[in-house]
C-alpha cells in the first residue's frame, strides 16, 4: 500500500515538505476570510486526528513499556486535538472569533504533560516492575505540578481579576517554558538512546521543535491581534503536526517493541524523589515571588496564597 510506503523517514520528510509548501501557497494566495479559516482549522484538525489515531494504534503491540509510551503520547495528541476541535467549532461552525481568554487553553497547556511523562518511561531501557509503576506516579506528580503553575500564573488573569493583556503574556511565557522543557527532555533521551528508538526520538524532537516555534509565534501574534487562522503563522504548526503523524508511521516498518538497553535501571525512585522535592520547594518560592516581587491586585494575591497553602499540603502528603 502507498500509505505504508510513507513510513520511511526520507519519504515522510518529502510529504511534510509538500504539506508545508501547500499551506504556504494557500496562505499567500487565498484572501483572508471564511474559506481560509476553514482550510486552516480543518487541516490541523484532520492531521491531529490522524496523529492521535496512528499513535494510539501502536499500543496494541510491543512491550508494556512501549505500550505505556505510546499511550501517553496518544493521550497528549488527543488533548491537543480536543483543544483544536473547540477552536474549530468557534471559527468554522459558529463563524466568530475565538474568545481570548479561551476555555480550551488549559487543555492545550496540559496536553504536553503526558508527552513529558512518556519520556520518563524510556522504553529503550529495561527497568524492573517497580520502576515501571513509579512512572505512573511521576505522571500524576508532573500533572499536578504543571497544573499548579497554570492555576498560579495564568488563571488569576482569567477569572480572579480578568486582564486580557496579563493573561496572554502569562500564558505565552509559561507555555514557552513548558515547551522548552519538553524539547530538552526529548534531546536528552534521544542522545542516550540507540537503535530504532533513536529514530523515534529524532522524529519527536523535530515535532517538538516546530511545535514550540509555531505556538510561540502564534501566541505573540494573537496578543498583538495579528494572527488569523490559515496565515503563515500556522505553517510551523502544520509541520509539527505532520511530524507527529509521521511518528506513528515511523514505527510500522521496524517496531521498537523491545527495550534495547540490557542493563536494568534500579534508581528510578531517585528521580521521583527529586521531582517531589522540586514541587515542594517551588511552591513557597512562587508564593514569595507573588507577595514581594509582583504587583498583582489584592484579590490575586489572596487567591495565590490559598492555592499555595493547598498545594503545599498536597506535596507534603505526597512525599509522606
What is the topological layout?
Elements (H helix, E strand, L loop, with lengths): L1 H4 L3 H21 L4 H23 L7 H30 L11 H6 L1 H10 L3 E3 L1 H25 L10 H29 L2 H29 L11 H19 L7 E5 L2 H25 L5 H22 L1
Helix pairs in contact: 2-10, 3-4, 3-10, 4-6, 6-7, 6-8, 7-8, 7-11, 8-9, 9-10, 11-12
Commentary on this structure:
By secondary structure, this protein is mostly helical. The chain has one domain: Rhopdopsin 7-helix transmembrane proteins (Up-down Bundle), CATH 1.20.1070. Helix content is 76%, strand content 2%. The chain has helices spanning 2-5, 9-29, 34-56, 64-93, 105-110, 112-121, 129-153, 164-192, 195-223, 235-253, 268-292, 298-319; strands at 125-127, 261-265. The protein has a two-stranded parallel sheet with strand order 1-2. It is flat.
| Cα shape | flat
Mean pLDDT: 81
Number of strands: 2
* DSSP summary: helix tally: 12
Give the termini distance in whole angstroms: 54 Å
Elements, N to C (H/E)? HHHHHHEHHHHEHH
How many structural domains in the coordinates?
Answer: 1
Structural class: mainly alpha
Poorly predicted residue ranges: 1-7, 252-269
* CATH fold category name: Rhopdopsin 7-helix transmembrane proteins
Largest sheet properties: 2 strands, parallel
Look at the structure and give the CATH class: Mainly Alpha
